[in-house]
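User: Diguanylate cyclase (GGDEF)-like protein/PAS domain S-box-containing protein. Structure?
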Amino acid sequence: MSTTPPIPASPPHPPTIADAGHPLPLCPDYSPRLLLVDDEPRLLSSLYELLRDRDYQLVTATCGSEALAQLNRLQFDLVLLDLRLPDMSGHEIMDFMNARGIGSDVIVMSGDVGIEAAIGALKRGAYDYLRKPYSREELLKTVENALQKRRLAVDNERIASRLENSEKMYRYLVDSSPDIIYTLNHEGHFTFVNDRAYQLLGYTREELLGKHYSILVHDEDLERARYVFNERRVDERASRNVELRLKCKGGGGAERTFNNTLMTISLNAIGMHLPDHEVKRHEFFGTYGVARDITDRKRAEEVISYQAYHDILTDLPNRMLFKDRLGLAVIQAKRKLTELAVMFVDLDRFKLVNDTLGHVKGDELLQQAALRLKDCLRKGDTLARQGGDEFTIVLPELRDRADAKAIAEKFLESLQKPFDLDGHLVHISASIGIAIYPSDGETIDELLRHADIAMYQVKALGKNGHSFYHNSMLDVSHQKIALEQALRKALEQNELEMYYQPQVDVVTGRIIGAEGLMRWNHPQRGLLSAGEFLPFAEENGLMLPISDWMLGALCRDLLLWNAAGGEAIRLSLNLSPQYLDRGDFFEKMRGALTRYGISPAQIEVEITENICIRNPQYAIEQLNKLCQLGVSVAIDDFGTGYSSLSYLHRFPIHTIKIDQSFVKEIHDENGHYPVILAIISIARGLGLHLVAEGVETEIQERYLEANGCTTMQGYLYHRPICLHSFISVLQAQNKLAPLPGGAALDAAVAPMAIQA
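Assistant: Predicted structure:
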């Protein structure tokens, strides 16, 4: 046992990051731990006293076994070891330390004058050998040098470990990069490439190292690659981006497009010369590059570019691309002094098919028609979809008009064959107008306008034919002007009239509402429906004054039907988007209701889904004002527009009207019509009122009623009727008891409906 004075307990040794046998970490705030081994108590005590004020942790041992026990128990930075111990030699203790991988440094202290003892200690890894008696300064210096050496060794190990971890991290990041990272020497040979090259191109690192970059570059891009990879500038201009196509190994000619970010690597050397004469030179060393695979992006850009110039439905050139090609054809015809033809093709009876069979079948018809028209063209001709059911064609290098006539006749012949739309055989025809350059116009717009005029001339003559433009056809434009003047005159001379189509509750058979529909009592053409003149009014700025007239007429009519006992019946009026966009609409509505004493609860404004996407926020503000006034809002033709269902939450909607195009699909009361069921479910879930339009058969009525829609309008009940007939219907209803299904009511008022 030790006979030295008691030594205070040492703090726990900090954990090491090294394995056994490696130097222990000596942190700046860590006190080194020393083991003092000597069998002479006086020398051991003297050694302890000498070192105790040096901020060391000191542990003593007076024999070999005690030293081994301490070495097994604690980690020491330095062992001061006497060679001659009573139970074993210092060499044996060092052998024990080496066998166990104990990495403490050892300073041997011995009074043995023989050289063999010193050689044996140094062979076993002793840091130094002090011969007794040693001086105080010699011992302290040796101890400090040993600990300093150990600190340096620990620092070096820590730096090496950090470098190793940094290199591992760098290699991981480089090899995990989604980009190809590479370096080239000054001759363009690969000196490094990460694993991404194999994943994208199929080349292993070994296959590329030492090879010239040209083995990867597409043949057509070699010249450009040679220019950019030979970049010798070293300033900020030495970095550039370039797109190249690289070959894939074993890809059967496959290639990928890469965006290469290149940077020149330069070796900057500073020569040692006379003072104040420093010379810097730049030696080209190679190129560092990052190649990002942009194949998917390029494909997406190609798709976007293609879609920008092509019609998505028919895959034909759209209006923009057609005008571009027509412009080039005009330039070429002008240079060669040749003619060209522009055709305007409008499909006859398309609207009937679209409304009867639905939009999906209408789209299929357009696709099939486009294929037939395309098969009739010559090489170099261009067929484009102008929009809707209209197509345009340019026939360059025309020999004479007979060529254009022959192609137009081929179009008509091809379209006369029936179209099979999932079992529905459909027959259509076409109206084709033809304009010839340069006699019918020398600009793109002139040629298209004149071809359009010629096409309308064919329609006016019965459709299903073709016609070349002639100056006399300008009368068509004059007729449009005359129609505009006649419509303005109709407003002044009170030729417009409101008709009403009742809405029936099929449970009670009673009329609970009516939709107001505009008619024009034309002095020459007779009674015209709204569809025959309102589109023209919208195009020519007449919609606002017509809507003003309609608002006043409805209020005047409401006074009359209220007097006939129709106070509980709500009137639905179709609101033009242009009228809603006008800022004073709300004020006009409020003023009219006040002036005529009409309850706002009797008015329901019908809007189309397209209003929701024109200017949603403004529309919401206007409709909210109406709701605050007491007027309700309905969405007309629900499901046929482009709005999101989210609008049903944002807009103050009270009623949904099922469009007649969906109702017409009902042919079996036990059938399954998911669109109608979805609309009914939406209305029920949102607590909205529901009206079905265009109900014409009892099968349709029974199906709708069975699935929760009980308010309907259509020819099964009433056609649109004038105010006088509508009031008669109301008076008859008030005299009759409620009848189921509305059949008895229709029978009672049938003479009036037919008269209307």
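Residues 590 and 709 are 32 Å apart (CA to CA). Confidence is low (pLDDT under 50) at residues 1-24, 261-279, 737-756.
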